[in-house]
Amino acid sequence: MAFIRKGMVKERKLPEFEELSTPEDLIKLAESKGLNTDPINITELAQELGVTVRFEPLEDEVSGSLVKEKRSGAWVMKVNSLHHPHRQRFTIAHELAHRICHAANSDNFEDKTFFRNGDSNWMEAEANQFAAALLMPENSFVNYIDNVSSKVEDLANYFQVSSMAVRVRAKVLGYEGHNL
């Protein structure tokens, strides 16, 4: 066991969550911390927010979870390591949305494939919309379509999300059709 003298460990001041209520707020925070935002480095952002991210095998229908530990009060996110990296990114953003928007309602969230359609639970639908806006900000999304490509697959690869996530985001932003 090692002892550390008080003052030797630099405490990281965590942002106040009251100041972070939108995807745009999180993007600004990421920029201020020097994190990549185009596309956003969602794992580093979660860590910057004081959320521990653990990648581990979970049941196939579980994409991830977010739990506030009772003893320490720390938030711990588990992400299914067996899922595609693009799915993992969306899961991290989705669970961050729960931390930002819903922590007053619960201290235990689990993202199951059952909720992915957004019809089953208002918190899940809101977390999906928040995650999509965080991973695919409107300005970046529109800029990519206007200046690079309007193909769903190209957008999915650029933003590192699934094709379905791109289609849903495009619909929310008023685009129609498979190629935007």
Structure overview:
The chain is α+β, with helices and mostly antiparallel strands. The chain has two domains: 35-135, Arc Repressor Mutant, subunit A; 136-180. It is 43% helix and 13% strand. The protein has helices at residues 23-32, 42-48, 85-102, 122-135, 138-147, 152-159, 163-172; strands spanning 51-56, 62-68, 75-80, 108-112. It has a four-stranded mixed beta sheet. A hairpin with a 6-residue loop joins strand 2 (62-68) and strand 3 (75-80). It is globular.
Strand content: 5-15%
Roughly how many Å is the radius of gyration?
Answer: 17 Å
At CATH level 3, the topology of the largest domain is Arc Repressor Mutant, subunit A
Please, what is the average pLDDT? Answer: 85
Into which percent range does the helicity of residues fall?
40-55%
Low-confidence residue ranges: 1-14
Give a count of the beta strands, DSSP E runs of length 2 or more: 4
